[in-house]
Amino acid sequence: MESMRYFSDILYFYAARVAIDTPWKYGPEYTFHVQVNSTAIPEEGSYMSIRLNVASKLVCQPKGLRILSCHFRDSKADSYATESLDPGTPAVPVSQVSRQEAYEINQDQFEIRFTEQGLDSLVVNENIQPRELDMIRVIVGQLNVGVLGEYDQTVELMENFTQGECVTMFWVERNVIGHALYVNRGYVLETIFGLKDGQLVQIKKIRNLHMCTHKVPYFFGSAESIRQVSDVVSTVSSSESHIVITSTEFISGTTNVITTSKVSEGMVTTLYENISVRLESILPALDEPPEVKDPEPASMFIGRWLMESSMEDDLSLEV
């Protein structure tokens, strides 16, 4: 026998169908599969590219109505050279595959805080490295839907993008799935879009990177400080996101194209980034979420640290 148990949270879905004898004392635990793939292609005339692949699990528990308590686990990262210059296709390594521990996110607990407009801020350990904080920001930014229940429309809105608040064009469309996509996962996502089996919502977002406040040049894993003069100059030329939501699926991904140049060497490289987050399971949590050790608030924006300094940052970085 089954019972519908509802869990309110801010991920735009809130229901799980579970057997009545399943222990849900501590609420649900959401597990997301995270994938980051980056392809670096040097300037014209190159016949090689460098691939970086990062895989991880993002595990979150609701903590009240507007907070998710999360951590990463099973993070793995590697890189290799390949003769493929197409970032959208699988590639065969022509060099040794090297582990990249610097991209393997640690398992420290952190919190994601939401408002009605979407992602608002983070709470992290005060000793977190700025580089790692920025990687977390980029990944959890995929949870930001950005529209509240509207569909079959095109609308221009301001979005809290990790690299600033950007004017973003949203395309929201509801479709009927042409084939049986439903898989019995033991839960049903009751979204703000009111989806039924066989229906999906697709959301496409294209950011106007010329209309952002405090825009920051950034690529995944960059260790360059925005407060220091750097030999590396980065420009994000395009950023586009796609979200698919069904009664059992939540898939969100972003594709960024970044141009980087090393001033001292005159070398130009184009980076193609694909960041994706996919809901993998909703299971009963085994315990209350642990508290963040030595907590400090941090904004969602790349390069920001303490919340009290954000106003100063905004004034110095606004474009």
TrEMBL record:
<dbReference type="InterPro" id="IPR015816">
    <property type="entry name" value="Vitellinogen_b-sht_N"/>
</dbReference>
<feature type="domain" description="Vitellogenin">
    <location>
        <begin position="24"/>
        <end position="265"/>
    </location>
</feature>
<dbReference type="InterPro" id="IPR001747">
    <property type="entry name" value="Vitellogenin_N"/>
</dbReference>
<dbReference type="InterPro" id="IPR015819">
    <property type="entry name" value="Lipid_transp_b-sht_shell"/>
</dbReference>
<keyword id="KW-0732">Signal</keyword>
<dbReference type="Pfam" id="PF01347">
    <property type="entry name" value="Vitellogenin_N"/>
</dbReference>
<dbReference type="GO" id="GO:0005319">
    <property type="term" value="F:lipid transporter activity"/>
</dbReference>
<protein>
    <submittedName>
        <fullName>Uncharacterized protein LOC100745498 isoform X1</fullName>
    </submittedName>
</protein>
